[in-house]
Design brief:
single chain; 2 domains; binds uridine-5'-diphosphate; Nucleotide-diphossugar_trans; binds magnesium ion; Spore Coat Polysaccharide Biosynthesis Protein SpsA, Chain A; alpha/beta; eight-stranded mixed β-sheet; 10 helices; transferase; glycosyltransferase activity; Glycosyltransferase_2
Length: about 325
Amino acid sequence: MKKGKLCIVVPCYNEQQVLPKSEPIFKKVIERLIGDHQVAETSQVVFVDDGSTDKTWLLIKQYSNEEHVSGLKLSRNFGHQAAIFAGMSAVSDADMVVTIDSDLQDDPNVIIKMVAKYYEGAQVVYGVRNNRQTDSRFKRISAKIFYKLMNCLGVKMIPDAADFRLLSHQAVVTLINYPERNLFLRGLVPLIGFPSAKVYYKRTERVAGKSKYPLRKMINLALDGITSFSIVPIRLIMNLGLLIVLIALILLIYTFIQNAKGNTVSGWSSLMISIWALGGVQLICISIIGEYVGKIFKEVKKRPRYTIEKDLYHKNNAD
Ligand code: UDP
Ligand code: MG
């Protein structure tokens, strides 16, 4: 059987402390797979510099002088999802594309198992973490709530599968043909279909440096995930509106009855409370609808999802 070409796409944002540790390990995985005749000689690790402001690009350039290593430089920081997408699009000629974080939190040796699953016929292989001990308590709980919420909203996602996965050539080509600007790969990948498999691994601590995912970016990613994949929130607003109208009707009837009985309703406070409460509900509802309108605004502009400044993989602008 013909050995397939494997490309390992590694997004990097200000990872000068991490790369000297992780680059040799990624390379070793490629070399081992080549040595075992599992993948083609042309297989590579492709680092994507997501607009780093430190020495990340210098390091990547230096590594790309070695065999089986190359890199891309984006023109600015486009974010983790866009960096992965840029890498996958650039190496879409490969037979297998693995995406993995640069910080060694995902075990690179699991790639060997992913490749085995590919040869067994899987076009999509999810890396699923079977522990979360190394994450903070907050991250653990928030992730659990997020996956539950997404499930309730009808978005198909593989729980605890982050962006460590293998995609076949056909799967990558299908994925990059999805035209949407809002990238939430965890939600998109299950949509493309194809036979899939899972491999389990233990997620470890970051080898060096700090997380590039502050709370702000995490909330943005979660909001993107919800609003790009589900219109359930808008439907909920409609139901809420109907419920409030119903309550108002009941109150109206009640007031008439009381009036007929000769009881005058004094309720100044209940009136004020309902004005404030309804005002609040309306503002929340408008903001949810606004979130969707914002999404549409972004989509119709059709701006590029990323811009490549330098491409050592195809040797474009590769000085
Ligand atoms: N990353 C990126 N662009 C960003 C933020 C992060 O390319 O804007 C990369 C980062 O260098 C790392 C991966 O995405 O390789 C995951 O980020 P990180 O480890 O900081 O996230 P965490 O594991 O804390 O969720
Ligand atoms: Mg990490």
